[in-house]
Design brief:
Blueprint (H helix, E strand, L loop, with lengths): L1 H6 L9 E3 L8 H9 L6 E3 L8 H10 L5 E3 L8 H5 L9 E3 L8 H5 L8 E3 L8 H8 L6 E3 L7 H6 L7 E3 L8 H8 L22 H4 L2 E3 L8 H5 L9 E3 L8 H5 L9 E3 L41 H50 L8 H9 L14 H12 L1
Parallel strand pairs: 1-2, 2-3, 3-4, 4-5, 5-6, 6-7, 7-8, 8-9, 9-10
Length: 400
Amino acid sequence: MVPAVAAGKQQLQALTHLNVEKCNRLTDAGIQLITCRSPNLARLQVDGCDQLTDDSVQTVAVTCPGLTHLSLGGCELVTDAGVTAFMHLSKVRHLSIACCSNVTDLGAKALCHLPLEHLDVGGCAEITDAGLEGLARIPTLRHLSVAHCAVTDATLAALRPRDLAYLDLSNCGQVTDAGLMACFLPAAAPIKLKSRRRSAPDSPSGSVKCLEFLGLNRCELVTDDGLGCLAGLLKLATLNLEGCALVTDDGIGKLEPLKCLAKLNVGFCPKVSPGGPVIKGDFIDPHDIDDEDDDEDYVTPMFPVPRRKRRERKVRRRKREEAEEAEEEDKEGKEERTKKRKRSASKHREGIAANATAPAVLLPRALLTFRYLSCFPRFSLCACLLPRPLFLFSARCCTG
């Protein structure tokens, strides 16, 4: 690989995007040679290149200062020393160090000063609240994945003022209802002395207003009380509760105010019954049943589908039925046309046979004369070619 890159170093001057994910034989020497020849590199994906070490990361950080997207998922040899070099990347917006198991809180704290919008530290089991609290305070952060991290309620409390659109807390077994309440529960407005009335709780700012995806897979300490505080997530479209064993039908019923909720996953939740409550009657069809097996009377909260989706399925089913009817009619029409052609051919053959035995009066005069005279054995074909007097004489001879 290295000789090929060296031969094409002139072309690398214009290289802006490089994706070499899962190139298991790529080493530090190869990636360093590429990046040194690519000063305009903006996107780099090396996910799954498990031979890369901190040397590669440090070289990339120095030689590619304009990097905006960097993905190092699964590079297990990268440690805090390599992540600390990211401080030179002042333009980076998208960063993934997922499953870099040797990165700890020290490396996470080095990322707090970057203008990140998308950050994935899922699978970094050594990162705890000490490192995540600093990441949660990045003002530009919109997408955060901390799946399989040692997250507790303290981290969720630090996330409260952020304008997050995506938050993945999957397999964070220490998250409890208290953490969800600290992050999402609306804060009460101050008492108005003039009116002497306490106003209704204000909608919390930040993540509660903007959050569209929330993953709570395998958060086994979350109960119905924790789901109750999610009612303020007005833009929430996807909620994953798979494996939350303490969630019941009552908790699902508390999600009724979520008007934008389009997908709810409660798989492996043994306390949620298949015939449990459906949010405002708008969600059906849990297993995403195929249109052919769609049952309108089958109602359950698992994998719900909004009423709009239900109408679309009805339209598709009706169109499919119409297409099947048209196909049947076309098939019947083809059979009818085939029978008609057969009848027409049969009549044609009968007509030919009838014409062969038709009366002589229908034939032309020459053929009529021939047909009449051919009845006499002494008449020959030459008689019809004789002049009229000889023809008459021949006819008399035949009759005499």
